[in-house]
UniProtKB/TrEMBL annotation:
Assembly and interaction partners: Monomer.
Chain sites annotated for binding [4Fe-4S] cluster 2: C165, C169, C172
Enzyme class, spelled out: transferase
Organism the protein comes from: Caulobacter endophyticus
EC number(s) from the headed UniProt entry: 2.8.4.3
SMART domains reported in the protein's UniProt record: Elp3
Domain called Radical SAM core: residue spans: 151-378
Protein name in the entry: tRNA-2-methylthio-N(6)-dimethylallyladenosine synthase
PANTHER family documented for this protein: CDK5 REGULATORY SUBUNIT-ASSOCIATED PROTEIN 1, MITOCHONDRIAL TRNA METHYLTHIOTRANSFERASE CDK5RAP1
All residue ranges annotated as the TRAM domain in the record: 381-443
SUPFAM superfamilies: Radical SAM enzymes (SSF102114)
Cofactor binding annotation: Binds 2 [4Fe-4S] clusters. One cluster is coordinated with 3 cysteines and an exchangeable S-adenosyl-L-methionine.
Compartments, as annotated in UniProt: Cytoplasm
This protein's encoding gene: miaB
């Protein structure tokens, strides 16, 4: 008796790390239905676009991609085959019915809190009857319905601990597409982390729209991290993305006390002008942000800071932008993400007066990026001559090369055998580029082997 051919699943992920996690969990949900992941949408039985709604261009890319996928669907239909197209994620949440109206090849739309319903939605789509749009906000139901086991490959993994946002920054769509803040129970997270460690994962990155607002079971992120640090085999812990107003003293203390908590912190500031920060509804000032960084560095002097910046927010004048540059110079960032302000329909900022000309935005972004790039290069150059513990993750692009991550999240390239993948090894850094380091294995024993 021959086996039933495996159904082919193609998932394209846009945007943040939480979407990466969600895509992984979608594959877990669909695996019992016989779906196996493929790298090419051509000929796939199910195509899922897991979307991001943060910027307008990202949304338009989804519609462009749908046009290409429709052509593939039509070609498959000509040979008697069937392709199901699903749009998931934040664009699905925000524009569900519009997606189905604008691109009729889409069979189903599922929001980020409802992808556990994919098997049922697919069955309905195949029957050509019933609801094909799911956009619930019940995050607890989603996690309760997900399979306990995760199919993981590699030595690092994302782990969602918190979803949604109550901050309502005036430029952001997340509260409208992910719902309010909700935290998973502590025991559920700990058990998932134990299973990941048992599968060979050495490093987890805890995810949340405001991850340091975590309050599952009345806990805090710091308390959760301390529990995770006790898990055998789980040697590195990171978290993203944080909000300055939720950076509690206990979390700052944890950075100074837990070796498992990596000395790298992504803490978005967005702007250096208090006027702009108030218009953004950020609930912090430039001064309070700088003082917060000082307290964090007092607890962990070697910590590397990363941030987010938006230029050209409505009402931003030259003087406001100069204050952003001043803040960057004062703090010093090891890495950063910077963007031109993009109007998102339905957000308060989209209707604000003083919208900034695109050419002005571009010029400011260029100036900011030059400063941030200089700081990133300087930070990387400061690692030359040091010996850093590197967790090796995969083979490199060149023969005999392996690639890992430093504690500061830099890619590190060395010559070495693939038997070192999954181990944490001291590496002497010999050269630095903007995005990576290169070094040699130090004449020291391997720290640990999985």
């Amino acid at each position: 008796m021959s086996e039933t051919p495996q159904k082919r699943l193609y998932i394209k992920t846009y945007g943040c790390q939480m979407n990466v996690y969600d895509s992984e969990r979608m594959t877990d949900v669909l695996r019992p239905l016989g779906y196996g992941v493929v790298d090419d949408p051509e000929g796939a039985d199910l195509v899922v676009l897991n979307t991001c709604h943060i910027r307008e261009k990202a949304t338009e890319k989804v519609y462009s991609e749908l046009g290409l996928i429709k052509q593939m669907k039509d070609r498959k239909a000509q040979t008697g085959g069937k392709m199901t197209i699903a749009v998931a994620g934040c664009v699905a949440q925000a524009e569900g019915q519009e997606i189905m109206n604008r691109q009729r090849a889409v069979d189903l739309v599922v929001g980020p809190q409802a992808y556990h319903q994919l098997p049922e939605l697919i069955a309905r789509a195949h029957r050509a009857s019933g609801e094909r749009l799911a956009a619930d906000f019940a995050a607890d139901e989603k996690f309760d319905a997900l399979p306990a086991e995760r199919h993981v490959t590699g030595v690092t993994a994302f782990l969602t601990v918190q979803e949604g946002c109550d901050k309502f920054c005036t430029f952001c769509v997340v509260p409208y597409t992910r719902g309010g803040e909700w935290s998973r129970p502590v025991n559920d997270i700990v058990e998932e982390a134990k299973r990941l460690a048992g599968a060979g994962v050495r490093e987890v990155t805890l995810l949340g729209q405001n991850v340091n607002a975590y309050d599952g079971d009345g806990s805090t992120l710091a308390k959760l991290v301390r529990q995770l640090a006790k898990i055998d085999g789980l040697d590195r812990i990171r978290y993203t993305t944080s909000h300055p107003r939720d950076m509690g003293e206990d979390l700052i203390e944890a950075h100074g006390e837990l070796p498992q908590l990596m000395p790298y912190l992504h803490l978005p500031v967005q702007a250096g002008s208090d006027k702009i920060l108030k218009a953004m509804n950020r609930d912090h000032t430039a001064e309070s942000y700088v003082r917060l960084i000082e307290r964090i560095r007092a607890a962990r002097p070697d910590i590397a800071m990363s941030g987010d910046f938006i230029v050209g927010f409505p009402g931003e004048r030259d003087g406001d932008f100069e204050k952003t540059l001043e803040l960057v110079r004062e703090v010093g960032f090891a890495s950063a993400f910077s963007f031109k302000y993009s109007r998102r329909p339905g957000t308060p900022a989209s209707a604000m007066p003083g919208q900034v000309d695109e050419a002005v935005k571009a010029e400011r972004l260029d100036r900011l990026n030059q400063l941030l790039d200089d700081q990133q290069r300087a930070f990387n150059a400061s690692q030359v001559g040091k010996t850093l513990p590197v967790l090796f993750e995969k083979a490199g692009r060149h023969p005999g090369q392996i690639v890992g991550r430093s504690p500061y999240l830099q890619a590190v390239h060395v010559s070495g055998g693939e038997h070192l993948i999954g181990t944490i090894v001291p590496v002497r850094i010999e050269s630095a580029a903007k995005m990576s380091l290169a070094g040699v294995l130090a004449n020291e024993p391997v720290l640990e082997t999985a």
